[in-house]
Amino acid sequence: MMHIPVNLNTNIEIKRLIDSPKLKLLMESLKMKINKSRLARDMGVDRRTIDRYLNGDHPTTSRKRSSKIDDYYDVISLLLSDESKQIFYYKRVLWQYLKDNHGLDCAQSTFRAYISKKPEFNSYFVSDKRKKSNEPVIRYETPPAEQAQLDWKENIRYLTKDGDVLYVNVGVLLLSYSRFRAFHLSISKSQSVLLSFLIESFEAFGGVPKCIVTDNMKTVMDEPRTTYQKGKVNERFYQFAKDCGFNVHPCLAGRPRTKGKVETPMKYIDEIHAYQGQFNYEELHQFVQRLCQP
After folding, report:
1. What whole-number distance in Å separates Cα of residue 131 and Cα of residue 214?
2. Which residues make beta-bridge pairs with 211?
3. Helices assigned H by DSSP within 169-217
4. How far is residue 145's CA from residue 177's CA, in Å, rounded to a whole number?
5. CA distances for 272 relative to 97, 115, 121, 186, 227, angstroms
């Protein structure tokens, strides 16, 4: 009968000493029998532990750690359910909402990793992924006061806490050099509202940029700029730009990436959907102003 002298007593040491099924096969091929009781006494473990190791059943040495985000599992499930009025376009928005309203205290990267590891949550975001273009984007910077970029997010459906349905529009003007930005919430998207917003923005900026890059919105362009034509700025906006002292630079139709700097903060506007049914119009306006802070 074979005797293996040992004096180790931890699972890891047992595993290293007994290369479990290999040792068992070797002993069987040599027609030798392992004294499990003696081995257990020498190692200071139960005989059944030796038996499990010899049969290849090794207990894991890693410990499953619970996450403090697990405490918010039910809340997240409810927010992402079909019954919820709220919409979360990005994990960042959900993270910020939980921080502001439920006391979540963790880094955004930690939260994103947690959601990604939960198929029932991650599928909510994966199913609505935007298609990415394979075309390269050339990034360039402009000097201070040289350029601003204008965008207008239109017809955002919002349910107020009073049960009314509003269709709101949010204008954004961003200075290309500093990334300082101004937001404006309005029910109307008329040209008068746009011009008023620009004047308020210039006052907040303390000056007027030399050029404003914009898309082909009807309040600015009578004819869109395309690959084959330069487009036509409508007369009223042209006169406004001349009086204020800036040039109008419309993007090519269908190429919003030309004003990519302002496209990025426009994503923040999607955070409005996380607060469906929680604000009246005035409170929603104040919320958008808070989003304006860089």
Report:
1. 23
2. 147, 247
3. 191-205
4. 7
5. 10, 21, 20, 14, 35
Q: Angle at Cα 145 formed by Cα 144 and Cα 150, nearest 5°? A: 115
Q: Residue 2's pLDDT is what?
A: 45
Residue with tokens 């802070």: 293
Question: pTM score, two decimals?
Answer: 0.57
pLDDT tens profile 34-61: 677 777 777 777 777 777 776 666 555 5
Residue 181, φ and ψ in degrees, nearest 5? -140, 155
Cβ count within 10 A of residue 223: 14
| Cβ-contact 169, 281 below 8 angstroms | no
pLDDT for the residue numbered 285: 86
pLDDT in tens, 220-269: 988 888 877 888 999 999 999 999 999 999 887 655 555 555 556 666 77
Structural domains of the chain, ranges and CATH numbers in brackets = 1-64 (no CATH), 68-126 (no CATH), 147-291 (3.30.420.10)
User: Which structure tokens are listed for 50?
Assistant: 């030796």
Cα separation, 161 vs 45, in Å, equals 65
What is the number of other CB atoms lying within 10 angstroms of the CB of residue 95? 22
Residue 293 Cα to chain centre, angstroms: 18
Residue type at 195 in one-letter notation? L
- Dist. CA 60–CA 80, nearest whole Å: 34
Would you give the distance in Å from CA 290 to the centre of its chain? Answer: 19
